[in-house]
Design brief:
With 251 residues, the chain is an alpha/beta fold. It is built from ten helices and twelve strands. The protein starts with 16 loop residues before the first helix and ends with a helix.
């Protein structure tokens, strides 16, 4: 697999007893958390109950439990998510967000909590191409979610003229399943979620196109960065982050 839980290698010094004891107490502060409507397995709404769930949902809930805040999850379109956080419309956002320099110029990031590869998703049984080179050298149409690192990888691989962008990854995968596009560039862990929905129609092929670290984003200068980082270190140390990863990614 092209992704690894970042608790498996050193990002910062290991969490000590004093780190755990020093978690900030935010005294029940309500924090507005930007999330996408559906981005499996990071966020989605249970079709029967309407209750939201997902890996990032559980991550933020556990961090807030430790630091004394109350998360209020607010669904927002991905295309303006980064800018909305940068402008202070949300206190933070977590939706499988890759740490990239262009974004770090306008928002603050937490420490990384997951490593995630960009991969090629195709219809099951695809025989016209099997890797990035063959996809690039054909006349194939490649889909991706707009304003994402996946869209950037698609453009770099085949050129803008052969990229079809979608507002949601789910829409891109649905287009792939019915033959409207030839491939979708997805984050591997998200691709795994959509394979679950379309397990008979799609599969991942080829090697990693790139590997990203994922982090929580905050408005510049946010006072939440320090306590959230302390909580993340504690969760890496005591196994809570491993538990969330196993629940949603099977690792």
């Amino acid at each position: 697999m092209g992704w690894l839980l970042l608790g498996s290698f050193v990002i910062t010094a290991a969490c000590s007893d004093s780190d755990s004891a020093g978690l900030g107490n935010l005294s029940g502060l309500e924090v507005r958390v930007g999330i996408e409507q559906e981005y499996l397995p990071f966020h989605w709404a249970d079709p029967d109950t309407g209750e939201r769930t997902g890996a990032d949902h559980d991550l933020i809930a556990e961090i807030c439990r430790r630091v004394g805040c109350v998360p209020r999850f607010v669904v927002h379109e991905w295309e303006t998510m980064i800018d909305s956080v940068a402008q202070g419309r949300f206190d933070l956002a977590a939706s499988g967000i890759a740490i990239v320099a262009e974004r770090a110029a306008i928002v603050d990031y937490s420490e990384p909590y997951l490593r995630n590869a960009r991969r090629i998703l195709v219809r099951r049984g695809e025989s016209r191409f099997a890797d990035a080179a063959e996809l690039r050298d054909g006349a194939f149409i490649v889909a991706a979610q707009s304003a994402t690192t996946n869209e950037a990888s698609a453009s770099e691989l085949v050129g803008d003229a052969r990229v079809r962008s979608f507002a949601e990854t789910a829409d891109a995968v649905a287009a792939l399943a019915v033959g409207e596009v030839d491939a979708v560039i997805v984050n591997e862990v998200a691709g795994g979620g959509y394979i679950g929905d379309y397990r008979r129609e799609v599969q991942l092929v080829g090697e990693d196109l790139a590997v990203d670290d994922l982090g929580i984003i905050f408005p510049p200068g946010s006072d939440l960065v320090v306590p959230f980082n302390q909580a993340l270190r504690a969760m890496k140390s005591d196994g809570a982050l491993d538990t969330i990863t196993a629940r949603y990614f099977g690792r």
